[in-house]
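Q: Please design a sequence for this.
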């Protein structure tokens, strides 16, 4: 078939791959004089109509995709000759090696390069998953990721190809599911015909494991369906944990969105501690004054007033002499200044106001954290007053929560709540939280957020 001309336009140059009923060729577009990829689906006697459904879905998907790292749709045609009947799909040609070819050719990847590659692929997935009906690739693997040669400090440009297994949520919910993918790179739920954006994250994680170990996931041992690769890699504990979160067989414990995977790439929750915490149910300490209010559809956490800490006492001590009157201790200094009392009165009023406000703030100001099905929001409260402490954040944008210590002059002064999201909160929640209270709160909030 080499040198044949398809659809009176595409001159076949060589075969790139194929399987029963399907072939892929490199061809020359005689109209544009550019190389293209032509995929053919033949209507053979053993033809399965599900194959045509997938073939047409690939064409329809490529038509609406416009991304520099994804091949572009060019043409679709029918084959109708006495010898052959079928369909052809034409797309742009990316003249670069796959990750599998790079690895077989001796190219190696260090942790920094694998992270850079992960970031690039996550950005491609973010584009695919951003459609109203998220586009799920379903067959991310080393042979479907193309990579240019290294350029300066860059690992090279990354491409995601072969959308022959593509699925979208609308199609998934509409009827029959065709189970496709590659064993070892497919998450467990995909074997049952269920796919979500997290399914592509699993496949990406398994692909990156192949890069750092040189072994396909099927060549590595498993424990409780989790790929065991630590002993075959030399990675930092944080990145190892991240890859394990990506390839978590339990869909409920895997990163659920590309954004959460991106945000956790540099701030990975420690896996072993997080899983142990999730398995162990914690109770609120008996001496805790924090209020946890669980309602149908929402949860609220109310932190009590902070009281008089060292910083508050120091501030009041500093302002007290001024509030009592500067002449009380600096009469000699101001004796030659005319209208001294007129100058002191506003300062005394201002200092007294600050002291009163600081006392009210320490004794009565509460913080309320509220989470419902839509938003995550934080409020300050004083008797009769309530205002937001920071912008409202959509609940689905939250990737993880943690309490972090704040150190002043080398000593831990208080804890802050850090929320990893599009807008990163950094809230001064409470100055005297115990470790038991912190662990209990993290568990309660993460449980409600399903993280």
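A: Design:
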């Amino acid at each position: 078939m080499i040198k044949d001309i398809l659809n009176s336009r595409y001159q076949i140059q060589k075969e790139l791959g194929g399987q029963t009923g399907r072939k892929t060729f490199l061809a020359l577009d005689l109209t544009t004089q550019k190389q293209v990829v032509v995929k053919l689906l033949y209507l053979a006697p053993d033809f399965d109509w599900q194959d045509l459904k997938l073939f047409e879905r690939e064409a329809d998907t490529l038509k609406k995709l416009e991304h520099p790292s994804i091949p572009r749709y060019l043409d679709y045609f029918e084959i109708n000759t006495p010898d052959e009947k079928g369909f052809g799909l034409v797309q742009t040609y990316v003249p670069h090696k796959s990750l599998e070819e790079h690895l077989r050719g001796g190219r190696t990847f260090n942790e920094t390069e694998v992270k850079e590659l992960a970031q690039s692929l996550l950005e491609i997935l973010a584009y695919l998953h951003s459609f109203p009906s998220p586009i799920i690739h379903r067959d991310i693997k080393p042979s479907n990721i193309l990579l240019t040669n290294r350029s300066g400090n860059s690992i090279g440009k990354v491409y995601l190809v072969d959308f022959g297994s593509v699925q979208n949520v609308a199609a998934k919910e509409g009827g029959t599911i065709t189970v496709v993918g590659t064993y070892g790179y497919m998450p467990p739920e995909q074997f049952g015909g269920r796919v979500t954006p997290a399914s592509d994250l699993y496949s990406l994680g398994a692909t990156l494991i192949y890069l750092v170990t040189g072994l396909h996931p099927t060549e590595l041992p498993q424990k409780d369906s989790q790929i065991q690769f630590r002993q075959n890699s030399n990675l930092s504990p944080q990145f190892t944990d991240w890859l394990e979160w990506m390839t978590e067989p339990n869909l409920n414990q895997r990163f659920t969105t590309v954004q959460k995977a991106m945000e956790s790439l540099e701030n990975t929750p420690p896996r072993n501690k997080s899983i142990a915490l999730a398995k162990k149910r914690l109770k609120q300490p008996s001496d805790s004054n924090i209020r946890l209010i669980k309602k149908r559809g929402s949860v609220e956490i109310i932190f009590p007033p902070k009281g008089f800490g060292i910083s508050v006492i120091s501030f009041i001590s500093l302002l007290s002499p001024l509030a009592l009157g500067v002449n009380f201790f600096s009469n000699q200094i101001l004796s030659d200044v005319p209208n001294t009392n007129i100058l002191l009165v506003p300062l005394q009023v201002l200092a007294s106001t600050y002291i009163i406000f600081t006392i009210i703030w320490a004794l009565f100001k509460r913080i309320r954290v509220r989470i419902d099905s839509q938003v995550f929001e934080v409020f300050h409260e004083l008797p009769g007053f309530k205002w937001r402490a920071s912008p409202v954040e959509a609940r689905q944008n939250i990737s993880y929560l943690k309490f972090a210590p704040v150190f002043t002059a080398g000593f831990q002064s208080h804890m802050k709540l850090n929320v990893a999201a599009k807008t990163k909160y950094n809230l001064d929640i409470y100055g005297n939280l115990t470790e038991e209270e912190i662990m209990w709160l993290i568990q309660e909030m993460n449980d409600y957020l399903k993280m």
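Q: Thanks. Anything notable?
A: The longest helix spans residues 340-364. Residues 186 and 203 are 6 Å apart (CA to CA).
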